[in-house]
Design brief:
Layout lengths: L2 E4 L4 E4 L3 E2 L12 H13 L4 E3 L8 H12 L6 E6 L12 H15 L4 E7 L9 H12 L3 E7 L3 H8 L4 E7 L11 H8 L2 E5 L22 H4 L17 H12 L8 H10 L6 E2 L6 H9 L8 H19 L4
Length: 327
């Protein structure tokens, strides 16, 4: 699979990575053996980048990755984790002592002395502008607790603030055919600065797979049930912030645009990969088959201009007004 560079970090990642939120929590239960088989299928398909967080299943996702890596030392996979959601979401909690404590927990979970990449996990907006926060992150690097650091953001404005900082290696942002605003400013700024872009929520919480209808029922412990109006965290993380009924209808149109040989999900992933400035896209997977299908998108032919134009037209007609003013 093609790999792309995180210029400021000096590392490369497969254009299709693996998001492991599903292997920890908030998507219904996942059996431990199945979770390990998902990691195996992804890595065997050429995936060299796993994304996780300390709060996914209270460390379960990180621990599962550690178990897998200890069983497959022959495979080189970069692991990016996130920190900052274990405490109340106020800027005063984003200090060095807490960073060290969270980092200690993640290093234990992952079974490593130094984490490849740590990201602030969608903190309060003022955190992105704090000199003290970046000084603390620089200290983690100096202490060899982490090799590099980045941020995960909700809004384009937060992304641009972080990109301006000289040691930010990556920005993780929601980017998919139902969330195109980052294309205008964030991706060009990242390319200019040498900051990697990690595209998350690439399938709009599964909408872009084309598998859901208005009648689909999700489990009670699935965020697609309990966070539809932002009850637990930013509503943009669930269906990319798109009203579910609108999303299902637009997803049906989207599915019809898939070229021969592409599933709708692969169309979404291939669309993201083709956006200039994207380093890696991190779809989740609940089964080995999903992991392999996602990875296969990294080897499909590029989409033609007619398909790209049709995807943009759909976004502008059905989605743009719902999402651009907020994120």
């Amino acid at each position: 699979m093609e790999e792309r560079a995180f210029d400021r970090w000096g590392q490369h990642a497969s254009v299709v990575g693996l998001g492991t939120w599903q292997l920890g929590a908030d998507w219904g239960d996942v059996d431990h053996k199945v979770a390990l088989s998902v990691l195996e299928a992804a890595a065997e398909s050429g995936v060299t980048f796993f994304d996780t967080a300390d709060v996914y299943g209270d460390g379960r996702s990180e621990q599962t990755i550690a178990t897998f890596q200890s069983s497959r030392p022959d495979l080189h996979v970069l692991v990016a984790t996130k920190m900052g959601r274990r405490v109340g979401q106020i800027p005063q909690n984003y200090v060095l002592d807490n960073f060290r404590a969270w980092n200690d927990c993640s290093r234990r979970n992952l079974g490593v002395d130094r984490i490849d990449l740590v990201q602030l996990h969608c903190p309060p907006t003022p955190v992105y502008s704090s000199d003290e926060v970046y000084d603390a992150l620089d200290t983690l690097v100096a202490e060899e607790r982490v090799a590099a650091y980045g941020v995960s953001v909700e809004t384009c404005a937060e992304a641009l603030t972080a990109i301006a900082r000289p040691n930010v290696a990556s920005v993780q942002i929601i980017l998919n055919p139902f969330r195109m605003k980052p294309l205008r400013e964030v991706l060009p700024a990242a390319r200019e600065a040498g900051v990697g872009i990690i595209a998350r929520v690439p399938l709009a919480s599964g909408l872009l797979s084309g598998r859901y209808t208005r009648e689909t029922v999700f489990a009670a412990d699935d965020h697609r049930t309990y966070n539809r109006r932002g009850e637990a965290f930013d509503v943009g993380e669930t269906f990319s912030g798109v009203d579910y009924t609108t999303g299902v209808e637009a997803a049906a149109e989207f599915s019809a645009l898939a070229p021969d040989g592409y599933t709708p999900a692969q169309l979404a992933l291939r669309w993201i990969i083709q956006q200039p400035g994207v380093t890696t896209v991190i779809p989740g997977a609940r089964t080995p088959e999903q992991a392999r299908a996602n990875a296969a998108a990294g080897r499909l032919p590029e989409l033609d201009t007619a398909t790209l134009a049709a995807v943009r037209d759909l976004y502008e007609r059905r989605i743009q007004d719902q999402v651009e003013s907020r994120w």
